[in-house]
Every structure is written in C-alpha cells, then in structure tokens.
# Entry
Amino acid sequence: MRAPGERPQLELRGLKKRGEVLAAVLALEGSSRAELKRTTALTAMMADRCLLVAVDGGLKTCRASRRRPDLYVGDGDSTRKTPTDIPAIVLPRDKDFSDLAGALAEMRSRKVQVVGVAGLTGGRLDHEWANLLELASRCRSFAGIVAPTDRGTVVVTSHGCSAATVRGRIFSLFAMSPTTTVSLTGTGWELQRRRLRPGSHGLSNLTGTELDLTVHTGVAALVLLPPRRKRVRRRPVRPAEPR
# Structure
C-alpha cells in the first residue's frame, strides 16, 4: 500500500467494465527503473490485466529492471538490435510519426482501456513536447492515460477522473484541445461546466481531500505535483571560545 498523499489514488471515468479491463504500461526511452515501478503500480490498480510494452529505447529500462516485456514496438534506432525473444512490432525508420504514436495505435487495436507511460518527460526536450501532444491527440481512444513522473503525476483524459488527494497540494488543469469544457469539485477553486482555453488558464489550483473532474467536451490534462520538501533548518554552530 502507498502512504496516503505520496501518489494520487485515481479512478478513471469512461472505463468499460464489461469483461476484462486491459491496461498497458509503455516504457519509453529515458524512463528510470523507479518511474517504471511507479507507473506499473498505478496503472495495474485500474485494470484486471496489465501489459508491459517496451517502446524502442525503453527496452533498456525493462532489462535494467529485470522485467520481460510482453511486446516491443519501435523502429530500432535506439536499441542495438530488435529483440527476438519477445513479440515485436518493428516500425519503419523512415516514418513521419513517433514510436510512441505507433505503440498507442497498437494499444487501441488491442482494446486497451488504460495506458500508463513511463518516461513521459525523461528524454529529449523535443520528444517531451511530442509525447504530450501525442497523448492529447490519441487519448479519446482510451479511458485515460496516466504518467507518474519524477516531477508529478500527469493524467490526460477526455472523460474525467477522481483522485484521493491531500489537502493543500498544488495542481493544475490544462485544456489540451481548442474546445474543452470541464466541471471540477473538491478543490480550492471549483468549476461548473467551465470552458477552458489552451494556455495558463487553470494553472495553480489547490487540492482538497477528494478531487473530482468531469470532461464534458475536449481533452484535459491534470497535473498533480508532489509534496514540497521541507527545508531542514540547521542551528548555527557556536565558535569555540579561545583557551
């Protein structure tokens, strides 16, 4: 069990609970072992079965964690060679989309409902931007996409979610599409069918004990920040008196 408040306990709207709920963790290049562990724990809580997918260079993180992926998706430009000991979908190197986009398309075809992303912000700066935009453009195919990074937890959703939170923590809610309408309760500043515009609209709100988000139209990104580290004040050392 996680200590309350360390990581938000999430429940995604839009889950189709008839039959098995399938989730997938996508390990991207630049993900850490700790990040992969957190992502797996959070994602698995929302599904009956959870796949591990190595997305190109994310294969190195899986191997460093001594975890065998269920699937590899990538063009092989970040690995020494395409793995032969696990099922693999090899993408062409001369393509106009990212390996993450290819992996998300494959997850949709497999009826995955919940996607966890390890390494969302762990690679190149341009990859970070591409990852965020890709999640926003494809999240309507899933109940939600979660990414617990070292700097906070990101939830991208076109349905909404609820989260058990600790009072007074900073979070932000961003519109990821031109027409995003949301309702938000259990927070410092609540919203009722409010239309958000892309930009800083929704920056720096405060949590209560139970955050509830409904996305009526469009796509929203919820960014929950970790607790601030307390500074330890050291008492000044009195200089020794001369003898």
